[in-house]
């Protein structure tokens, strides 16, 4: 692939890249704080209070997982800037508008593909409710 975000200007790329890096730093700092907080709390933790600590911990793990997931997407976006594929839809290879990228730095799909994916997700929801019927409908559509 030799395509190089031709539709985005160097300046636009620079703006987006700067924001991605800022986001990355923000998350890294937040994670550091979170880890420090965990350590402090473990030292102070009262065994009698273990139940509430466990509840809190599973909340923290969910939080950290979500941040890690976002961080991975940011790194992927930064990678694709280096490779010159940033802003190209993963699904149809179409161009994702600067406005969309600016609003959602880690967007991997163009609006049309995103809407289609969301639509498919909704269909999956119905699949779960009535699996065989959902699948039959799905096959008919394909
Ligand atoms: Zn697309």
What's a quick, concise take on this entry?
Helix content is 74%, strand content 0%.
Please tell me about this protein's structure.
The chain is an all-alpha fold. It folds into 2 domains: 10-109, DksA, coiled-coil domain (Four Helix Bundle (Hemerythrin (Met), subunit A)); 110-142, no CATH class. The protein has 5 helices and no strands. Helix 1 packs antiparallel against helix 2. It is flat, with a radius of gyration of 21 Å. It binds zinc ion. Zinc ion (ZN) binds next to helix 4. The site of zinc ion has 8 residues, from helix 4.
Please describe the structure with a list of short key phrases separated by commas or semicolons.
single chain; 142 residues; mainly alpha; Four Helix Bundle (Hemerythrin (Met), subunit A); 5 helices; 0% strand; binds zinc ion
Mean pLDDT: 82
SSE string? HHHHH
Strand elements, count: 0
CATH topology of the largest domain: Four Helix Bundle (Hemerythrin (Met), subunit A)
**Helix content percent band:** over 70%
- Beta-strand percentage range: under 5%
Number of helices in the DSSP assignment: 5
Bound small molecules, by name, code or SMILES, are:
zinc ion
- Which of globular, elongated, flat, extended, rod-shaped describes the shape? flat
| The first-level CATH class name of the largest domain | Mainly Alpha
- Number of individual domains: 2
Report the end-to-end length measured between terminal Cα atoms.
29 Å
- Whole-number radius of gyration? 21 Å
Helix/strand-derived class? mainly alpha
Question: What can be said about the biggest beta sheet?
Answer: none
CATH superfamily grouping of the largest domain: DksA, coiled-coil domain
Unreliable residue stretches: none
In CATH, the architecture of the largest domain is Up-down Bundle
């Amino acid at each position: 692939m030799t395509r190089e975000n031709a539709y985005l200007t160097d300046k636009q790329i620079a703006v987006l890249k700067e924001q991605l890096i800022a986001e990355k730093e923000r998350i890294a700092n937040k994670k550091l704080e979170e880890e420090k907080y965990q350590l402090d709390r473990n030292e102070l933790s009262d065994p009698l209070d273990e139940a509430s600590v466990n509840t809190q911990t599973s909340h923290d793990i969910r939080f950290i997982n979500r941040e890690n997931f976002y961080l991975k997407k940011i790194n992927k976006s930064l990678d694709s800037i280096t490779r010159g594929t940033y802003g190209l839809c993963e699904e149809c290879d179409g161009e994702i508008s600067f406005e969309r990228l600016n609003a959602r730095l880690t967007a991997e799909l163009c609006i049309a593909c995103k809407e289609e994916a969301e639509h498919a997700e909704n269909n999956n929801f119905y699949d779960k409710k009535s699996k065989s019927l959902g699948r039959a409908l799905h096959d008919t559509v394909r």
